[in-house]
Amino acid sequence: MHKQTIKTSTIHYDVIVGEGLLTDIAQFLPKNYENVLIVSDDVVEKLYAEKLANNLSHIKNVNMTSVPAGEGSKSIDKYFELLTEAINHKLDRKSLIIALGGGMVGDLAGFVAATYMRGIDFIQVPTTILAHDSSVGGKVAINHPKGKNLIGNFYPPVAVIYDVTTLRSLPASEIRSGYAEVVKHGLISEESFFNEVLKVDLTKPLDPDVTVEQLQKGIAVKANIVEKDERESNIRKFLNFGHTLGHAIESEMGYGQITHGEAVAIGMLFALKVSQENYNISLPYNELYQWLAANNYPLMINWPGPDMLIDKMKLDKKSENAIVQMVLLEEVGKPSIVNIDDHNLRIQLENFIRELGSL
Ligand SMILES: NC(=O)c1ccc[n+]([C@@H]2O[C@H](COP(=O)([O-])OP(=O)(O)OC[C@H]3O[C@@H](n4cnc5c(N)ncnc54)[C@H](O)[C@@H]3O)[C@@H](O)[C@H]2O)c1
Ligand SMILES: O=C(O)C(=O)C[C@@H](O)[C@H](O)[C@H](O)COP(=O)(O)O
Ligand SMILES: [Zn+2]
User: Where are the transmembrane segments (predicted)?
Assistant: First the structure.
């Protein structure tokens, strides 16, 4: 078991990573709670909710609820339904919400916790590779049809309890999706970490020791940034590498048509391309492209038109006065935030789409 404490100006919380933590979760609760609502999706609920609940039998009221699996549930409708569940189960300001699942559940249940009675405690119990990223740092949100995560808050959990044995049941598509964020953590932090990640072959069974070590490294990269800039005034934007285009693709194609990680993977390729042009340097674009292709990331997608994508990129939360901001790399491990004017963005995007090809 490995414990890392995240210390921001407003809160300290532990991120505990280990095998079999679900059956031992009671010891990691930071307080005594009398009323707990476990929120999951209908796939994860069947796999792990009972195991979790069994370990909370000492708590007076433990209830469980779930939303349909998939990005479509990160919606205002499901958010409202969960608030109603919280009311029906008589959650009060001393109650706890446990988000059991991947980033979708974590973001959604976290936003419910952030807003129910102006905020109650919540714990992240991540079950995907991607959630090594989403469970840490306190960004909680739901999507608007017009843009990703447009409705949300910064609302850190009181603990993150990451039972990595749950990762064994992940389908290949979700291993791939999650690994995109591990690649991101490598690219924005250290070349050696990035190179290590590119040695992983996602088409073969993962080596659990390597995976857990890389997830812990990713968490450490994120923790280091979030501790200095929790509310994204400056360096937290680095964690958005690949997301300016990635989020635009997700919302323009329709939530759930492509996974978050797959869209971010394409976004990272674009960000590398723009970085190379912008700084007149060479970056491992080809290496990343080849790794993504070899690991079956969808790189030939049914591209939405560039105008639609640019409109979505302007809605990104980093934009100011409708000027698109992208996270670029001056070198691997050295991110920077750059305004990209519309004309340049359009040319770069059209060239990129042409080069990548479409269906
Ligand atoms: N808050 C943040 O900082 C942050 C960071 C990155 C991503 N995100 C958000 O996270 C979301 C993506 O998260 P995700 O990739 O975990 O998706 P997800 O939560 O939708 O899970 C993906 C799929 O895997 C299934 N699943 C989850 N755990 C499983 C397990 N152990 N075994 C078998 N199946 C399992 C789910 O039912 C779902 O079908 C997006 O909404 C993205 O915007 C947020
Ligand atoms: O934690 C962050 O900060 C990130 O940007 C991490 C991203 O991987 C994540 O997808 C996040 O939800 C994106 O945030 P947004 O502010 O662009 O919605
Ligand atoms: Zn992300």
Answer: 96-117
- The count of domains in the chain is 2
pLDDT digits (tens, 9 = 90+) for 61-109: 999 999 999 999 999 999 999 999 999 999 999 999 999 999 999 999 9
**Do 124 and 140 sit in the same domain of this protein?**
yes
CA of 16 relative to ligand 2 center, distance in Å: 21
Q: What sign does the CA torsion over 249, 251, 257, 262 have? A: positive
Give the nearest ligand 2 atom to 148 CA. 18
Which range of residues forms the domain containing residue 348? 172-356
- Write out pLDDT tens, residues 124-134: 999 999 999 99
Is the minimum distance from the CB of 132 to ligand 2 under 6 angstroms? no
Ligand 2 proximity of 239 Cβ (cutoff 6 Å):
yes
203 is annotated as contributing to ligand binding: no
- Same domain flag for 162 and 43: yes
* Contact assessment for residue 86 and residue 92, using Cβ atoms and an 8 Å cutoff: no
Same domain assignment for residues 278 and 324: yes
Residue 144 annotated as binding site: no
State whether the beta carbon of 133 lies less than 6 angstroms from ligand 2.
Answer: yes
Reported ipTM: the value is 0.99
Cα distances (angstroms) measured from residue 120 to each of 4, 81, 111 = 23, 17, 10
